[in-house]
Amino acid sequence: xxxxxxxxxxxxxxxxxxxxxxxxxxxxxxxxxxxxxxxxxxxxxxxxxxxxxxxxxxxxxxxxxxxxxxxxxxxxxxxxxxxxxxxxxxxxxxxxxxxxxxxxxxxxxxxxxxxxxxxxxxxxxxxxxxxxxxxxxxxxxxxxxxxxxxxxxxxxxxxxxxxxxxxxxxxxxxxxxxxxxxxxxxxxxxxxxxxxxxxxxxxxxxxxxxxxxxxxxxxxxxxxxxxxxxxxxxxxxxxxxxxxxxxxxxxxxxxxxxxxxxxxxxxxxxxxxxxxxxxxxxxxxxxxxxxxxxxx
Length: 296
What we know:
Layout: H1 2-29, H2 36-53, H3 58-80, H4 85-105, H5 107-110, E1 116-117, E2 122-124, E3 127-129, H6 132-154, H7 157-167, H8 169-174, H9 179-205, E4 207-208, H10 215-228, H11 235-251, H12 261-279, H13 283-295
Antiparallel strand pairs: 1-4, 2-3
Helix pairs in contact: 1-6, 1-7, 1-9, 1-10, 1-11, 2-3, 2-4, 2-9, 3-9, 6-9, 7-9, 10-11, 10-13, 11-12
Membrane topology: Multi-pass membrane protein
Subcellular location: Cell membrane
Main location: membrane
């Protein structure tokens, strides 16, 4: 039971990092992306390539992964962010489909559909971190660092510019804001931080393949943000925890057919999001904040 709980907390920490980084552009800039799993995968593959062929030090794999994620995000952001939000959604979906094909076919780097096995453990100043009891401190620590970085950005002048763009791009531009540049920078920051989660994920499992970075993963991460509460600090973490704990609870229900567990989970996710949009449009955490604001 202890090993199971450690594994669950580690995965919640990794997916919370993914949700928090997506929330940075979704909740504060109003940029909706269906390609978040792409940057997750790019970070995983870039970090793994460095670890397997050069050096597994976290001070090498993570910067390389962040650089790869940032560069790829520029390819998406520069043309797509010059237009309104729905075009970016379409562009991100196209990138997601293209990336899955590349992940599947670029066997020299990704291992193809079979994936990569035997990924070296994280190396932190010569200490190999592979036990869950050790790894949990790394994943939670990274989540805290990402939260601090995003919190500082959100409460800076840059964050105020993001919220202005989210509320009205035309008004932000009228006040002299360089809307395309600000949106591009936000996407680059989000993608670079997302890549860090990819490095942790690959190192922890010692195996990765394309199935972890497909469209359904991007949708799952977006669901975590929406269910938890967009534009809130705790919302993405609450959403990630809920959507990762829920399958564990469902799997223990003996009256449900085990062969249909996956379908039942998808039905519950969809139903939950629909109900939240009707009764708690701000998400689990967002609704509470809105109520408190109304009382004031």
